[in-house]
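New to this. Help decode the following:
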Amino acid sequence: MRVLHVMAGADAGGAETMMLDGVLALADAGVEQHVVTRDSANRLAAIRAADVPVDEASFDKFWRFPTQATIDNAIRTFNPHVIHYWMGRAGMFAPAKWREKSLGWYGGYYKLSRFRNCAWQAGVTGDIARHIVDQGAPADRVSTLHTFAAIEPAEPASRASLDTPADAPVVLALARLHWKKGIDTLLDAVAQLPGVYAWIAGSGPLEAELKQRAETLGISERVRFLGWRTDRAALLGACDIVAFPSRYEPFGTVTVEAWAAGKPLVVADAAGPAATVTNEVNALLVPKDNVDALRDALKRVMEDAELAHTLVANGKRAYEAGFTKQAFVRAAMALYERIKGGSTQ
């Protein structure tokens, strides 16, 4: 099986992480791969370290020729059985000639037209798969391909290095600093939880605004803005609770990362998490934009050890049942084999 992956994407982000984790998991499984992606130092280094050939492209939609030429050349020389286009920007560069072996992957509720040259489609959740079919895609060519938690065992991060008392309750948020992620809601909740520290691992356009909000709330001494981190496992190992207050989240890899790391999860009811977790079983589910509900849920987990234990145990079971690296490889390979068998080219 030869798989060509095409990804535009930013330097960092959920879908970008999913694509990289997927390529590395398939490389570990012995799948022959080639990648075309935008310049991103961390992504390129990780792909090359896995001995997967990679070509760089700009994915400039106003000057398409260089990227189109790079993709065309990769297809000719690598001769893939499957061409996997990760997200809409990449899908817009899919050549019509290779439509039957092309797969469009949706990390959100994208328009089908962005993947018009992909005969096969996959959504990160079942609801996104239904969204694709509702736009007119043939149901027998639409699948669900979940993300997974790529959490390798790691020593917990040093609280001292993050200027955090060893005995303080720590709430961790792994998210871009964007309005969609609801970090402002978390800051407001933490302001009502004396002694609780918040670690916020992510970067984005609201960084200055969120730091100012923490200052205004009088909690800047209890909030650590960590920037984009590659040591997620270490941070997860050192925190007490994972908070995921997103206003908009098609899936949310943080959900399964918290489960994999054995941490209790408090999550807002954005579409993806609401469809993935079971309230009071493997997470506490709270309404979006509800500071009081988020505060109360965090407080419950901190004060009720039995509840925290139940959420962790059930989360671990949910992770092992469908969100491990092995589960992803099985699902991806089954889908790729269908495409290979159904392709006429």
User: Anything to note?
Assistant: The chain has two domains: 2-148+324-342, 160-322.
